[in-house]
Each structure stands twice: as C-alpha cells, then as structure tokens.
Write a structure and sequence with these properties.
By secondary structure, this protein is mostly helical. It is built from 23 helices and 2 strands.
C-alpha cells in the first residue's frame, strides 16, 4: 500500500481545514499515524457523515493517538448508541490519556457521572507488587486523582446531578476569556481539552509573549489537545539547551508529559534519545537539583508508557532504585511496561538480579494475575517469592 512520505504528511497538517470532506477518506487510507489522526480530528469537529464504523474500528488501533481522537470524534457526535462501546473500551484501555478521552466522550454520549468515575477510580487506585512490596502507580504519568478531577471539571464533564457541558460552549467561554486576559491559564487548558483544530493557531500565538508558567501551561494544553502540529514545538522544548537551568528542567518535564499525552509513536526515538541526554548532560549540572526532585527521566519513561513504545528500553530501569527523590525509576518503568501490555519479554528478565527479577515478576502479575506467577512461590530469592505470594490488590 502506498503511504504518504512523512515530510508531505507534515505539510498536510496545516492545510487540513481546507480539504473537502470527500478527500479526507482517501488521505485517511494512505496516510500514516499523523495524517490519519488529524483527519479524524477534522471529521469529528465537522460532523462529517458516514464515518461511524471507521471511528469505532479506530478504538482498537495500535496507536494511542488514533484511539484518543477516535473517541474524541465519537463524543462530539454524541450518539447514545456509542455509550456502551466507549465505556467498554475505557474499561480495557491502559493509557491514561486515552482512557480520559474515552470516558469524557462516553459521558457526552449519555453515560452517567458514576459510570465514568467507577472506571476512573479503578485505574487511579492501581498498584503493583514489586521488590519492596505493593506500591501505587496510578498517578505516575501525571494523571493523579486531583489532576483528573480538575481536567474533568475544565472539560465540562459534569457532576452527578448535572449533565456534561456542550463542548462548543466550553470552547467559546475559553476563547472569550483569553481575548480579555491572555494569561488565563485555566482557559488555555480548557481550550486544549476541547481539541478543536481551529484553536491550534491561537494556542501557538500565545507562546511568543508567554511567561515561564504560561509556557508550561501551553505545553500541557498542547498535549491534551491532540493535534500533531504541536509535535515540533514540544520536541524543541524537550531538547532546547539555551534556557535557564531551572526553567529548562521544568520545560522538559512539561514537554515530555505532553508528548506522552499526544500519544504519537513517532516520538519514540526522540524520547529514547532524551533519556540518555538527560543523564549525561543535565543531571549533575547547575540546576540539577530540580531534575532530581522533579525527575525528567521519570516523566520520559512515563511518556513511553503512554505511547506504548520501547519496552526494551524501559525494562532497563526495572532495577533503578536511586535515580530520583521518589526512590528511583523502577515503579514508573513497571507502570509503563504494564501499559505496553506484553508480559512475554518479562520472563527473560527472571534470570537477572533479584530486584530486576522481582519487579519483572510484578509486571507479569499485574498483566496476567497471581496464577501467572505461581511458579515462583518457592523461589530462593526472597523478593521474588514475596511478589509471587503477595495478596491480590
């Protein structure tokens, strides 16, 4: 099958709004991850007819970016017939950002507040058995209970006694607020959550005059928005050298989180390179205290989990116990490998050090249940045996 070269795909992104509906299906068929995702973005906001079957099928795509925009588009359609499908996929979804958009869209399609938050709750409270016992992992990619609740409010998800807000209304209020006060950070995040292609230029235009805090907020909004147009800006933020060290750490944290939330697997190579660069060139340099307290590498590992990529790189951190102030990178690595969803490579790690083996077994257990680790109940390594014997969580 012919595929559009990447350089041409990138050029198409900014011209997408000018392309008639009947050409979008051809682009979707021959485009790569970026173009296909952007096509879905546009047909969702246009309400283009005849796409329901394609959108439903896209909820099972390998790319987290395509799954999230497919959910986004179905939510804008608001059909009650898609409620059960979206809830079902949210129940099975491992990526936090994709799950959020699936549940927001399910709400717009008629799901109750409690139906959505029952799913949120189970994933927000998730834990893993590891070398040092049971540890929570639900908020390691930035989706803490507090953050999730705040983004739900800004997106107009509604409460038990109220319906979800109309996306057009939420978007209109945010744009109006920004026209009066360009420093309204909540409005910037709300605009990102609405994911409308026509807001890309506005979010980009705020960057030039934005202060440090607003630039971090803009990174957040770009990641939540979903447009691949933001990849270039976020990549620059992750690799920029000529900034104040303290702000540089914060900017790299924000941009790595945003790249993970965008969900494009094309970011894999950049994120892997950033892991090495962070360790060699930034940690130990001026301002590196922030990099330990608010670790950039931890957020890069979490981003690799959100895009479900590079498990062979992530697994090398299963034995890392001292890389940051939170006790190393092993928990973030375990959660990222759980998101990847493939336990088979973990078995090859069982011959490594006791800590690595115990954490690898913890991933297997999280993916396949306690029965899958019963073969290690009598393992002579205490940490490994404890993982196998641990009570279910």
């Amino acid at each position: 099958m012919h595929v559009i070269p990447m350089r041409i795909q990138v050029r198409l992104l900014r011209k997408m709004r000018e392309i008639p509906d009947h050409y979008l299906r051809s682009l979707f068929r021959v485009g790569g991850e970026i173009v296909r995702s952007e096509v879905i973005h546009h047909i969702g906001t246009r309400g283009a007819p005849g796409w329901d079957r394609t959108l439903c099928a896209c909820l099972e795509e390998r790319s987290p970016a395509i799954r999230r925009v497919a959910a986004f588009a179905l939510g804008l359609g608001g059909s009650s017939g898609h409620k059960k499908l979206l809830l079902g996929h949210a129940e099975m979804e491992r990526c936090d950002t994709v799950r959020f958009h699936m549940l927001l869209s399910a709400r717009r399609c008629g799901a109750s507040h409690n139906e959505a938050w029952d799913v949120f709750g189970r994933y927000l409270e998730r834990s893993v058995h590891g070398a040092y016992g049971v540890r929570p992992t639900g908020g390691l990619a930035g989706w803490t209970a507090e953050e999730t609740a705040e983004l739900w409010r800004l997106a107009g998800g509604g409460q038990v006694s109220e319906p979800p807000a109309d996306p057009t209304t939420v978007r209109g209020r945010a744009r109006t607020s920004l026209a009066v006060n360009a420093d309204d950070r909540a409005a910037v995040v709300a605009l990102g959550l609405m994911g409308h292609p026509d807001d890309v230029e506005l979010l980009e235009s705020l960057w030039g005059t934005a202060g440090r805090r607003m630039r971090l907020t803009l990174c957040k909004a770009m990641g939540l928005h979903g447009s691949a147009i933001f990849l270039g800006r976020l990549r620059t933020c992750l690799t920029v050298m000529d900034v104040d060290p303290g702000h540089g750490f914060a900017l790299r944290v924000a941009s790595s989180m945003a790249l993970g939330r965008l969900g494009y697997t094309v970011s894999t190579r950049l994120l892997i390179g950033a892991l090495t660069t962070e360790a060699l060139e930034y940690e130990g340099s001026p301002g590196a205290g922030l990099g330990v307290q608010h670790s950039v590498r931890a957020h890069i590992l979490a981003a690799l989990g959100e895009i479900q990529s590079a498990p062979e790189v992530v697994e090398t951190y299963l034995g890392n116990l001292h890389g940051n102030a939170q006790g190393g990178f092993y928990l973030t690595a375990m959660d990222a490998l759980w998101k990847h969803g493939n336990e088979q490579p973990m078995y090859s790690l069982m011959a490594q050090s006791e800590v690595v083996a115990a954490n690898a077994l913890g991933v297997i257990r999280a993916l396949s249940g306690p029965e899958a680790v019963s073969g290690w109940l009598d393992d002579e390594r205490p940490m490994v045996a404890r993982v196998a014997k641990g009570q279910s969580v």
